[in-house]
Write a structure and sequence with these properties.
about 180 residues; mainly alpha; two-stranded antiparallel ribbon; about 0% strand
Amino acid sequence: MSTSSSLVIPDSLLAKEATEILREHSTEVLINHSVRVYLFAAEQGRQQKLRFDPELLYVAAAFHDFGLLKKFSSANERFEVDGANAVRQFLTAHNVPEEQTQTAWQAIALHTTPGVSHYMRPEVALLYSGVGLDVLGKGVPGSHHRISENASDKDPASLLAIFVVDSKDKLLTIPDQK
């Protein structure tokens, strides 16, 4: 568990293998999105002083959009469930305990479902909020994401464009002026 003040990608074998699979099967845009989701989520956990498993959160962030990839998508399930099933297979193959596997599965399955994740384990809530910050640019009190500065809360095309844009910003968030 972590309440660390530094944001780093976990350096475990499990995290490294998740990164390898992400790079093997994904696009640069989705790779960068997944890393930003983890960093935003971990930062929110740090700011809220939550106890969470950084490795499990990272793996969930790495796999959260796998259902969008042809190799992992099915004809019958939502993309979120396909991604959740992919992480279950990965974690089970690495002998991760069922409780942790289920947490990662839930985090991915619910990462686009509003109003539920904040009642669940921190990793589930943090993945949802990390995705929200990267896709919509909202979520860290007192700061914002540069891509979302001109986004409309009402125009879906603008919100979708935020997801597709790959930011070259060095800072994750920009402190709001007080």
